[in-house]
Design goal:
It contains 9 helices and 8 strands. The protein has helices at 18-31, 39-44, 50-58, 63-80, 91-100, 113-120, 146-155, 169-178, 192-196; strands at 5-8, 15-16, 86-87, 104-108, 131-133, 162-166, 181-185, 202-204. β6 (162-166), α8 and β7 (181-185) form a beta-alpha-beta unit. α3 (50-58) packs across α4. The termini are close together. This is phosphoglycolate phosphatase.
Length: 211
């Protein structure tokens, strides 16, 4: 595949932060006596906003309570997230190969941009990525196309020359809504069959298949 712009999801696409995510959710849920939520259930919400995830896990729909949960989670994430996050084995080699080919590279995530930056500074040169769009940068989270559209405008890229890579059906919907091609990677909790229900160029076992 020969695209000029590659936009990646972060969690379960470039990195496995499930250990940190589960830990932060577990602390907040236990604090509020939600003791029966499984790790599997938490992992299935990765890629959604924190408010959506807490609503799914607790059954609560009150915006004020969900916002309070989000604030508690963020404080725990400041402590536990990055130390419990690991890049997938093919991530760095794939990104560097695409960059060497002259491609523009970006990240579109519901995760906070500052947290992605603070994690990646250990692994990539400061200006390696052309753009990172985090949860704080958009009004509407994925599967809204806002983040992708913002990146395309910033990079001067067209939908036709852009590939969006993600691990979840939310990512597949995001690509479809933005009018860009989609490639799925099976690093997360979503199956190939679930991803194949959406328009896609390919479904990959790992990121290395991009290059």
């Amino acid at each position: 595949m020969n695209y000029k712009t590659y936009l990646f999801d972060f969690d379960y696409t470039l990195a496995d932060s499930s250990r940190g995510i589960v830990k932060c959710f577990r602390i907040v849920l236990t604090r509020h006596q939600y003791l029966t939520v499984t790790d599997e259930a938490i992992k299935r919400t990765i890629g959604k906003t924190l408010e959506e995830s807490f609503s799914i896990l607790t059954g609560i729909n009150d915006p004020a309570q969900l916002e309070a949960f989000r604030q508690e989670y963020r404080k725990e994430a400041d402590v536990h997230m990055n130390v419990n996050t690991r890049l997938f084995p093919d991530t760095l080699s794939t990104l560097k190969e695409l960059k060497q080919r002259g491609a523009r590279i970006g990240i579109i995530s519901t995760k906070y941009r500052f947290r992605i930056l603070s994690f990646l500074e250990e692994y990539l040169p400061k200006d390696f990525l052309d753009i990172i769009v985090g949860g704080e940068d958009v009004k509407a989270a994925k599967p809204s196309p806002e983040g992708v559209q913002f990146a395309l405008e910033h990079l001067g890229s067209t939908p036709q020359e852009t590939l969006y890579i993600g691990d979840s059906t939310v990512d597949a919907e995001t690509a479809r809504n933005a009018g860009v091609d989609f490639a799925g990677v099976l690093n997360g909790m979503t199956t190939a069959e679930e991803l194949q229900a959406y328009p896609h160029r390919m479904i990959m076992e790992n990121l290395g298949e991009l290059v």
